[in-house]
Amino acid sequence: MTNDIHLMDKNYISPALAIISDAVIIVGSTGVLIWFNVWIALAMIVTSAFILIIPKLFGKKLSSTRGHYSQALSELTMRLKDIFLGYEIIKSYYMDKFTIKKFQLINKEVEDTNFKALETISRSSALASYLSIMTQAVSIGLGGYFVIKGQLSIGALFAIVQLGESLGEPIMMIIDKINVLKSMTEIKNHLVEFMDIPDIEATRHKQLSRVKEDITLENVNFAYEEDKNVLNDLSITFEKNKKYAIVGSSGSGKSTLLKLILDEYMPQEGKVMIDHQSVSEVTRQSLYEQVGIIQQNVYLFDTSLKENITLGRTLKAEVLEESLKQSGVAEFATSMQLDLDAPLGENGNKLSGGQKQRIAIARALVQKKPILLLDEYTSSLDQKIASEIENIVLKLEDVTIISVTHKLLPNILKQYDEIIVMEKGSIREKGSFEDLMKNQSAFYNLYYAEGITDCEERDENIEAM
Q1: Is it the case that residue 238 has pLDDT exceeding 80?
Q2: Most buried one in 9, 19, 175, 224, CB count within 10 A?
Q3: Start-end of H helices in 149-265
Q4: Torsion sign, CA atoms 143, 146, 148, 150
Q5: Is the pTM of this model over 0.70?
Q6: To which H or E segment does residue 383 belong?
Q7: How confident is the model at residue 25 (pLDDT cuts 50, 70, 90)?
């Protein structure tokens, strides 16, 4: 999109504005020519009109070549991003030659498509120049004829020749610019598609007030691609201030469920409601004031520790201090001698994964949102740190917590009010940790497949139950 906007500015906006000044010159020159001699003016206008055919001849090819150039630029940008972000992988796996070769191929494609576009524009400009010269020749020929007949002075002839340049050259320039505009058709249409996306927020006027009851999904069907449902006729209720763990194999629809609650996507069928209000009908601002999320990858801004927690809000000192203490940020900040105004660097490069997650928890605490969604937020942390962070979150009061997790740690799972087991977009079973283990069904199998693998620890857990 960045590349396309730059191309539009250079090859669409600027040429379109320049056409206006050229058109003014053409109108003025034509008026003076008619004043000198109507017949010469008509002849030059008719000859110049042939230049107008050029955009028809080259327009389609220009649009196609510019479209290919835009696509090639997009691929080049993505390849550069991959090279910079995957630099460590490239070096550690000796991918240097392979990476350079792929980059050179894409880079060559960019230059080849650009060359084809410029070549087509050059051919168009050459033809326009030839027809412009023909217009000049017509003005000289007819002017000479009228001079011989005594109907035109030599001075007037020179003036007509000069005016012919003022007529032919702007027409040629306009045709060049029209060709450039035509070449941007595909890119313009691509950008217009983004601009024409309806503003859903503008159609919503209902406000979601402070959550008083529950979150409900009723007969929800959802698919990212047609005929490939991720959620199948899913119905579930999350009661206020209870803690829920959602478990299941990859692709079972766990994270999708959270995205539907956040209204990032809308179900094809069914309803997602908070306090009996559909999330697709309330304003997103009022929704996000009630619902917070902590994800696996925490992003930190290149600002101070305080700004990364408050996110621009003005908070009372005691509220901030309490969140720092509850989240464990105060503890590591003291050990690192990190004050609230200390910069954290680009994406918090001075901090560990566990410290970043604690900052994410502090963010959620200061916002005091009644619903907190956790999307595998400890999956990249070691077991000790993950347990510490989950214990912090699960001790929060007056908060409805819905946590998607792969870490099936018994000491953590026992703290949830309910564990929901998902399989192929449906709820296979749900209940407390003890009940699900006694059932020896889906959760039991998942627990021993992905949870505890040590035989002694497994036997201890079974005896404890």
Answers
A1: yes
A2: 175
A3: 154-183, 185-195, 254-261
A4: negative
A5: no
A6: helix 383-394
A7: confident
